[in-house]
Design brief:
This protein is an alpha+beta fold. It has 11 helices and 14 strands. The strands form 2 sheets. Strands 1, 2, 3, 4, 5, 6, 7 and 14 form an 8-stranded mixed β-sheet that branches.
Length: 341
C-alpha cells in the first residue's frame, strides 16, 4: 500500500466523492468524518479552538491507485514546541473521530501509516494524539501493535461516556422502557402539553431560504444557558453555521424546533445520518419551562425516529444526567497517544 501525503487544502476538493464513498464502507461511519463536516471544520479551525494548524492528509492507495484509507490529520505545536498530529475535528466539537478505512483493510492501512511515519513522514510529528475514538473502534488495538513494532510509546485512556437510545417500535414501547418514575413523568408532561391552549407541534426546517433565520433562533435558545452562551463566541457561532450549512447541503441536517403556537420554545440541531439521529446541540426557552419542553421535544423526536425507521438516537459525548433519565445507555470515547522515543 502506498501513502499519499496532501498538505494543500486546494488538493482536497478532488477527494470529495471518493472520501464519502469510502466512509460509507468504513469501520466507523459517523457524520463528523464526512467530507462536508471535515472541510467545514478545517476552514474554521474548530471555531477558534486552533489558531495555527497545518493540513496533513495521509491517504492509503493500493497498487492500482484506488483509495483504500484516509488518515485526516493536521499538525500543530504544543506548549513545548513539539509537533503533534491530531485528527481533523479534534477535539471539542466533533464527538467521534477515527481513521476512514474498511474493516478488511484496517490493519494493512495502519501498518502502512506507521511505516510512513517512521520513514518519509518522520519529520512532521513527535507525538500522535487521536481524540474521540469510539470504544468499538478497530484503531486503538491496531495502533498499539504498530507502535510496539516501531518502538514507540503507546497510551490509551477513556475520556467520556457517549449515551444513546436504541429507537423502539412505538412511543409506548419507548416510555415503557424508562424507569417507572421517569415513565410516569413523561406521560404526565405529554398530557399537560396536549391540554395546552396553544398547540404544541414539531417543526423541522426544510427550506434553504429559512435556514439562517432558523439558526439565529436556535442560537438564541442555546444562549439561554450561561455555559452555552460563553461557548458560542463569534468564531464558534460562525463555525457552527458553516457546519449546519454543509450538513444541510449534504442532506443530513435536522434542525428541529418544538413550537407553542407560533413560538419556537426548544430546538435540537441533529445530524440525520446513516439511519441514526445524532444530537449535536440543543437549546430551550426558559419562559416556557412550565411546559417541560425538553421532555416534550424528546418524545417528538423519538416519534419521528420511529416513523422514519431510524435505528439510534445518539446523545453523543457527555454524561449529563438527563440523558439517562431518557433511557440512554453508555458507550465511551477514548484517546490514543503515541510518542516517538
Amino acid at each position: 500500500m502506498h501513502i499519499e501525503h496532501i498538505r494543500n487544502a486546494a488538493d482536497w476538493a478532488a477527494l470529495a466523492q471518493g472520501w464519502n464513498a469510502l466512509l460509507h464502507q468504513s469501520h466507523n461511519n459517523v457524520p463528523f468524518l464526512t467530507y462536508e463536516f471535515q472541510r467545514a471544520w478545517w476552514e474554521g479551525l474548530g471555531g477558534g479552538e486552533w489558531q495555527q494548524a497545518e493540513l496533513n492528509l495521509l491517504l492509503g492507495r493500493d497498487a492500482e491507485g484506488r483509495l483504500v484509507g484516509i488518515a485526516p490529520l493536521f499538525q500543530a505545536q504544543d506548549g513545548n514546541g513539539k509537533q503533534v498530529l491530531s485528527l481533523i475535528g479534534s477535539h471539542e466539537i466533533a464527538d467521534y473521530l477515527d481513521l476512514i478505512v474498511r474493516p478488511q483493510d484496517h490493519a494493512a492501512f495502519v501498518q502502512a501509516l506507521s511505516e510512513y511515519l517512521a520513514g518519509e513522514g518522520s519529520g512532521i510529528w513527535q507525538r500522535l494524539e487521536l481524540y474521540n475514538l469510539l470504544d468499538s473502534s478497530l484503531t486503538p488495538m491496531a495502533l498499539a501493535t504498530a507502535a510496539k513494532a516501531q518502538g514507540w510509546s503507546f497510551a490509551q485512556e477513556t475520556l467520556q461516556p457517549s449515551p444513546y437510545i436504541v429507537v423502539p417500535k412505538s412511543l409506548d414501547a419507548y416510555i415503557d422502557s424508562l424507569d417507572s418514575k421517569q415513565a410516569h413523568e413523561m406521560r404526565r408532561k405529554l398530557r399537560r402539553a396536549a391540554r395546552n391552549p396553544s398547540p404544541i407541534t414539531l417543526e423541522i426546517v426544510r427550506e434553504a431560504a429559512q435556514l439562517d433565520q432558523a439558526l439565529d433562533e436556535f442560537f438564541r435558545l442555546m444562549c439561554q444557558e450561561a455555559d452555552k452562551a460563553a461557548f458560542l463566541t463569534p468564531p464558534m457561532r460562525a463555525q457552527m453555521q458553516a457546519i449546519a450549512h454543509a450538513a444541510f447541503q449534504a442532506g443530513w441536517l435536522q434542525l428541529a424546533f418544538l413550537k407553542c403556537g407560533p413560538s419556537r420554545i426548544a430546538g435540537y440541531m441533529n445530524f440525520d445520518y446513516d439511519n441514526c439521529l445524532w444530537a449535536y446541540n440543543a437549546g430551550f426557552d426558559a419562559a416556557f419551562a412550565y411546559l417541560s419542553p425538553g421532555w416534550v421535544i424528546m418524545a417528538e423526536m423519538i416519534k419521528w425516529g420511529i416513523a422514519n425507521e431510524r435505528r439510534v438516537f445518539d446523545f453523543m459525548r457527555g454524561g449529563e444526567e438527563y440523558k439517562y433519565r431518557f433511557g440512554a445507555v453508555d458507550r465511551f470515547v477514548q484517546k490514543v497517544t503515541i510518542s516517538r522515543n
